[in-house]
Amino acid sequence: MKHYRGTRKKLTTYIDQFLSTGETVENIRDIWYKFKGDIEHLKKMPDDKWDIYVNRLIGEYLYELFLDGDVTIYSRLNLITKGLSNDKHTYNTPIVLFTEKPTRSTDILSEALQCGIYSSTGQIPSFESVNIAQYLNRTAKYNKAYLIAITDFDPSGESIFHSLAVKVKNDLGLINPDIEFSAIPVLFGSGYEDIVSHYPTYTLSTNKQNKPNQSWIEKGQTLGVELNVVENKAELLESAILKSVAPEVVEALSRYRWKKEKEEELLSTDKHYKQLHEQLRKRVEDIREEVESMETVFEAKWSTPIDVDGVKDMTKEK
C-alpha cells in the first residue's frame, strides 16, 4: 500500500468512511458525490482540476486496496463495467478479445467463441482490468486464460495493449495464481517494414513529450497504421486464436456446441416431447385466456422506490 500524505491522506479517510458503510455505487464518481460537500475545505485548485484529482485518487486508492489483498472490493461496490460485454452466456470460454476500436470482426468471433469483448479507446480504469481478470477466473476451466488484442499498429496501440496485459496478469495472479495467462497482440504482418508496405500509413508526431512515439522514431519507425484501414481483421484474429489457444479449451467449446445442437436435433424429432410441448402451449393459452377474462381495477399510485412489485400492485382483481 502506498503511503499517502497531506490532502491525499485526508481524502483516503473519506473514502474509507464510505467503504465502511457497505453501500454500492455505479461508478467511481458516485463515491466522490457521497462526500463532495464535506471536502470543499481541502480544495486548493480550480473545480475542473479538483474533479480530475479527486476521482483519479479514488480510482488509484481502490486499486491499491485490491492489490493489498482486498480482491472482492470491486464486486462489493458493484461498479458497472463500460467495456466488458458479451460475457453472460450460460457457457463462456476463458478468452477476452480486446479492441481499441469496436469492429464487426470481434462481435462475430465473440459469438462463435462465446467469449468476452473489451473495447476502450483510451485510459483504462483499474477496475476494468479487474473485471476482465474476474471473468477469466470464472471461465478458466483448464487454468488457461487469454487476452487477444487488435489495436492500431502504432505506439499508442502498443502502449494500451501492454498496459492492459500487465494489469490483467497482475490482477489475475492475485485472484487465482494457478491460472496460466497469455496476452497475444494481433499483428498486421511479420514486422514493421512488412506492415507499413501493405497498408495505408500516417506519420507519427515528433513531439518530444510523446515518449511512446519517440521510442518508435528512435528505432527508425516513423509510420503508423490505423486499425480502421485494415480490412482483413477477422482473418488476423482467427489466425492468432488458432495459434495460441490451447486445444483443450477449444475442445470444451466444441463439445458444448455439439451437445447443444444434438439436444435440439433429438428434441425436434421426439414425439413425446412434441406432445408435451403442445400440451404445455395449450395449457399456457388457456391460462392466459382465463387471466384476460378477470375483471380488474387500476390505482395510479407509484411506489417508492419504483420496482416490479410496486408497479404490479397498481392493478388489482375486483
Question: Notable features of this structure?
Answer:
single chain, 318 residues, alpha/beta, Rossmann fold, five-stranded mixed β-sheet, two-stranded antiparallel sheet, 13 helices, 11% strand
Strand content: 5-15%
- For the secondary structure, the number of strands is 9
The value of Rg in angstroms is 26 Å
Instruction: Identify the strand order in the major beta sheet.
Output: 1-3-2-4-5
Q: Given the C-alpha coordinates, what overall shape results?
A: globular
Mean pLDDT: 89
Q: Provide the CATH top-level class of the largest domain.
A: Alpha Beta
Helix amount: 40-55%
Distance between the termini: 63 Å
The class by helix and strand makeup works out as alpha/beta
Q: Which regions are unreliable across 5 or more consecutive residues at pLDDT < 50? A: none
The SSE string, one letter per element, is HHHHEEHEHEHEHEHEHHHEHE
Q: How many separate domains make up the residues?
A: 3
The tally of helices reads 13
Topology, element by element:
Elements: H1 6-19, H2 28-35, H3 47-67, H4 73-77, E1 84-85, E2 95-99, H5 104-113, E3 116-119, H6 126-139, E4 144-150, H7 155-175, E5 180-185, H8 192-198, E6 202-203, H9 211-218, E7 223-224, H10 233-244, H11 247-269, H12 271-292, E8 296-298, H13 308-312, E9 315-317
Helix pairs in contact: 1-3, 2-3, 6-7
Description of the molecule:
- This protein is α/β, with parallel strands linked by helices.
- It has three domains: 6-77; 84-245, Rossmann fold, CATH 3.40.50; 270-317.
- It is built from 13 helices and nine strands.
- It has helices at 6-19, 28-35, 47-67, 73-77, 104-113, 126-139, 155-175, 192-198, 211-218, 233-244, 247-269, 271-292, 308-312, and strands spanning 84-85, 95-99, 116-119, 144-150, 180-185, 202-203, 223-224, 296-298, 315-317.
- Helix 1 packs across helix 3 (47-67) and helix 2 packs across helix 3.
- The longest helix has 23 residues, at 247-269.
- The chain is globular, with a radius of gyration of 26 Å.
- The N and C termini lie far apart (63 Å).
- The model has no long low-confidence stretch (mean pLDDT 89).
